[in-house]
Amino acid sequence: MSNNGNHEQWLIDFGSRLRIERERLGLTRLALAELAHTEQGYIVQIERGDRSPSLRTFVNLLSALGVSADALIFGDIANSDGKEATLIEDFTGFLSRRSTVEVQSLFEIVRLVTRHRNLENGQIEREDSPQ
Questions:
Q1: CB of 46 within 8 A of CB of 15?
Q2: How far apart are CA 128 and CA 67, in angstroms?
């Protein structure tokens, strides 16, 4: 059995979310292409679900639109009031002002708390480690 249908649907959904974000910002395809350092025709193909963007184009699109990868890949995963996105942005800003040692220590604390909560809830533990 082929997963081609699922792959095609993912591309269509991704393209639709890209178009929605572009239109929300009032950008033309040409303007987005210029901001993302690519061609207008490539944007058209991505929005139609005919092509998948390269990693470089994907990153450029995220930057041009000011959205997260999750937003384009999975849709809006933040709470409708935006609190989750704000919290993530605040935490990211907080971490960016810390030394590597502090970030590693904070990561270890979060990992230990998560492990403890998972054990309390009877969940299988997955080992996460900083890269």
A1: yes
A2: 25
Phi, psi of 118 (to 5 degrees): -65, -40
Whether 30 maps to a domain, the answer reads: yes
Other Cβ atoms less than 10 A from the Cβ of 78: the count is: 15
Q: Which domain holds residue 32?
A: 4-74
Each residue of 64-92: pLDDT tens digit?
Answer: 999 888 888 888 644 445 566 677 777 77
> pLDDT tens digit string along 87-103?
777 777 888 888 999 98
Identify residue 24 by its one-letter amino acid code: R
Residue 32 domain-assigned (yes or no): yes
d(CA 23, CA 98) in angstroms, rounded, equals: 37
